Amino acid sequence: MIIKITLLVLFFACMIGVGLYSQSKVKSVNDFVLGGRGVGPWLTAFAYGTSYFSAVVFVGYAGQFGYKYGLSATWIGIGNAIIGSLLAWIILGRRTRVMTKKLSSSTMPDFFGKRFNSNALRITASAITFIFMIPYTASVYNGLSRLFGMAFDIPYVACVIAMAVLTGLYVTLGGYMATAITDFIQGIIMLFGIVAVVVAVLNGQGGFYEAVFKLAELESDVSLTMGQKGVFTSFFGPDLPNLVGVVILTSLGTWGLPQMVHKFYAIKDEKSIKTGTIISTFFAIVISGGCYFLGGFGRLFDTPAIYDVNGKIVYDAIVPSMLSTLPDILIGIVIVLVLSASMSTLSSLVLTSSSTLTLDLIKGNIVKDMNEKKQLLCMRIFLVVFIVISVVIAMDPPTFIAQLMGISWGALAGAFLAPFMYGLYWKGVTKAAVWASFACGVGITVANMFIKFIASPINAGAIAMIAGLIVVPIVSWITPKMKKETVEGIFECFEEKVLVSKKKSIEEE
Question: Measured between alpha carbons, how far is 434 from 416 in angstroms, rounded to an integer?
Answer without folding.
Answer: 8
